[in-house]
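Subject: Sanity check before I submit

Could someone independently write out the structure tokens for this chain? I want to compare against mine line by line before I put it in a report. The sequence has 237 residues.
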Amino acid sequence: MLTELQCHLSEATIFIRDQVPFQPHLAFTLGSGLSAFADKLTRATRIPFSSIPYFFAPTVEGHGGNLVAGYIQDVPVIALQGRVHYYEGHSPESVVFPTRVLAQLGIKSLVLTNAAGGLSPNMRPGDFMIIKDHINLTGMNPLRGPNPDFLGPRFPDMSEPYDPKMRTALAKALVSSSTRPGSTLTCSRRRPWLAGSLTTRSRFSSSRSSRPLFASACGASRATGWRSARSIAAYTS
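---
Independent answer below. Compare away.
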């Protein structure tokens, strides 16, 4: 007998497949300020989150709230313009639902992007950072609770959280790109925490003072979706 989650995933997957006439294996989740990337896809099909069963529309500025399926140089891809966040009032299960649907659609590689607060004094606004690890300080895990076999192992391997080959390829692409002259590239770890407001001066100062023990950046969006993707064996970067 199918679980409620399986039924919801199946309904959302069928809805999207009925409108996307090709099979993509690569997907992007586009965070704040990056939604315009999806506008560059050719032969594109755009589906509002609000029309997809059990998806929620983002309420945060800069998150367009569309699933866009199309091509990049003849490579079929899906791009999610934005994401919903736990701090918007959604449950962890709702936050990771689109990621789980991507897996049901046959996605094998997932690129997660987000805006983050830099803690390193060497970082400047607009710099790129490739995340190689993270430290979850949210106290939340979307894998908590029942773990049906179709979602992956109870305890997925976390020793290499972001695929090394994808990180290397992305670093080469960013270094050779001339789209952001003067920007620097960092490969480091990130510290997710719960959000809902900007940080105070004291919290920022304490974060920077403890940075060598923790991370080069902090944020409030990526880790939840990443854990879900990792549990279902998608490659993440």
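---
OP: Matches mine. For the report I'm noting this point. The chain has a mean pLDDT of 78.
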